[in-house]
Amino acid sequence: MSTINASTIQRDLVCFQVSMLNNHDIGNNTSFVRQSCIDTSKVHFNNGGFTIASDGVTFPEAGYYVIGASLYYQAEQANDTNDRVCPEMKFYNQTQTANLGGSGSIAAMGYCRNLNSSGYSGSRNSSSMITEIAQVSASDVIAIHTKRGADSGQNLEIEQQSIMWAFKLQ
Q1: What is the model's pTM?
Q2: Per-residue tens of pLDDT for the chain, all 170 residues
Q3: Residues 6+ apart with CB under 8 A from 3
Q4: Separation between Cα atoms, residue 79 and residue 118, nearest integer Å
Q5: Alpha-carbon distance 40 to 130, whole Å?
Q6: In whole angstroms, what is the distance from residue 64 CA to residue 53 CA?
Q7: Cα–Cα distance measured from residue 96 to residue 36, given in angstroms and rounded to the nearest whole number
Q8: SS (H, E, C) 12-58
Q9: Are 16 and 43 in contact (CB under 8 A)?
Q10: 3-state DSSP assignment of residue 137
Q11: N or C, where is the chain less crowded by C-beta within 10 Å?
Q12: DSSP letters along 76-108, please?
């Protein structure tokens, strides 16, 4: 029986991770729109040559990737007893003008309700996360799209604790 030493296994890891802008208003659209929420000054790592712009990431190589994002939201203080928000997000391949992976998977678990009648004052926070495996061509631009699923009049912002990442499956 032979033993494989982990130090002898070498992989060229193609991956990135980047933070989102702080207090980025997602707008009041009830249809999906591209967001310019990526903070290009807060790239945690970029191995393989991704081009990171505020409105999307250009992938350097063709292949299958695991692509994900975790968006942390803050809704403004409620104006009445029934204010709520339900942001929805998905990935979109801007180059191919198609939903990522063709599926159009949507993350919509960021719902939060701010009942000022319950004695609570101040903003409310929530988050949503999405991860997909998708085939991407070299130079494809993958963007985050969002829309409002409830109360498009309630102010809603993406916070700096949010991130987007990807790594190539090899």
Answers
A1: 0.86
A2: 556 565 655 568 999 999 999 999 988 888 999 999 999 999 999 999 999 999 999 999 999 999 999 999 888 766 665 567 788 999 999 999 999 877 789 998 877 766 655 566 656 788 899 999 999 999 999 999 999 887 667 788 899 999 999 999 97
A3: none
A4: 13
A5: 21
A6: 21
A7: 18
A8: CCCEEEEEECCCEECCCCCCCEECCCEEEEEEEEEECCCEEECCEEE
A9: yes
A10: coil
A11: N
A12: PPPSSTTEEE-EEEEEEETTTTEEGGGT---B-
Q: How far apart are CA 108 and CA 27, in angstroms?
A: 16
What's the confidence (pLDDT) of residue 167? 97
Is residue 158 within 8 A of residue 37, CB to CB? The reply is: yes
Residue 50: both structure tokens together: 């991704």
Cα–Cα nearest to 132, from 44, 59, 66, 88: 66
The token pair at 137 is 């061509």
Query: Are 139 and 157 a contacting pair, CB within 8 Å?
Result: no
